[in-house]
Amino acid sequence: MHVARLSSVLSALGVLVVCAGYVQAQDTITYYWDINDTGSDTFLYSGEEVINFKMYALMEPGQVGFAGSIYEIRGGGDYADAGEVVGYYNYLSTYTDHGDLQDNNDILDIESFQLPLMFGLFDPSNPILLYEIEWEVTGSFTIATLTSANHLNNDVYTDIYGTSESYDAVTATATVLIPSPASVLPMVGLLAWRHRR
Question: Is this structure's pTM higher than 0.85?
Answer without folding.
Answer: no
